[in-house]
Amino acid sequence: MRRKLFWTAVWALSLASLASLAACGDDGDTSSTGGGGTGGAGYGDGACGACVKDACAGEIEACAGDPGCAQYLTCLYACPVDAAGDADAACAAGCTVPDSSTAEAARAAVEDCRGFGRGATQCPACGAPENTHPLLNQECAPSSDPNACFACEDEHCCETYAACEAGAECDALVECIRACPDAGFDACKTQCEADHPAGVAGYGARIGCLLVFCADADACGNVPLDGCSKCINAKCADEFIACWANPECYLLSECSVPCGADEACIEACGAAHPDGAQAFGDYALCGTQACSAECG
User: Fold this and answer.
1) Crossing angle of the two packed helices 227-235 and 101-115, in degrees rounded to 10
2) What is the pLDDT, as a whole number, of residue 12?
């Protein structure tokens, strides 16, 4: 199976599925009360803040070197901590920077690192959940492949790759999708899934693992992930992969992509794939509760 061709056809639709759950539940409270702590130990003095300072040292150093971004850091460090140990979200959202593109870029890099990157994955004191699903804990060896995307799959998703490649129907599904023309690709992909139903489970598991670990621009993606997708990867990865490894939940998720906020459309997808409804509901609920600000 030639992976370089495999990726070009399926990426945009898969990313749309990852972010589409924002329309599947009620939004949470995303109001902001402005920056600055209101007493007690601030985020910068807590265990989470201290860990993030180490994990995101490069981003924080660059921010501190910009006068506008340094103001944001002062505000962030003074924010109270939430129940999980992280900076209070409303307070952090109010920590803005002066109107400067360089300051804003530096601030965004810090927020990205602490919210979804090393600051989230390497700092349990911040309350980010640890992935427990077996498909997110595959036993893979280091890769020497010069292609960053292939190396990422080799190192994080080797078992799902091997299983799909070894499965006749999963491999046939991949080959079918690869042959789909750009014009009418979505309909062609849907037909491929209908023609190779026995391959959907392995295909969904493979793509799901890749979306969690390898979707951003420095690996397999053509553009950086948006904040919604990054949040889901950081906070709802277990629920996401459990859905995509379930053929009916995967198909329900794909069906719901064009629905947007159309509840009747989403309900029709659920009726067409009832055996995936529970896993899809768990995935959607996590996204709307944990990532309402990013996905709303």
Assistant:
1) 20
2) 46
The pair of structure tokens assigned to 21 is: 């759950």
pTM of the model: 0.73
Query: Residues 157, 288, 103, CA angle at the centre, nearest 5°?
Result: 80
| H or E, element range at 165 | helix 158-166
Residues forming beta bridges with residue 87, ordered by sequence position: 81
pLDDT at 95: 92
Domain limits, the chain: 43-126
Angle among Cα 154, 214, 117 to the nearest 5 degrees reads 120
Give SS3 for 75.
helix
What distance in Å separates the CA atoms of residue 76 and residue 214, rounded to the nearest whole number?
Answer: 29
SS3 87: strand
Looking at per-residue pLDDT, the higher value among 226 and 238 belongs to 238
The per-residue pLDDT for 15 is 54
- The DSSP-derived string for 8-34 is HHHHHHHHHHHHGGGGGS---------
Residues 270, 249 contacting (CB under 8 angstroms): no
Question: DSSP class of residue 81?
Answer: B
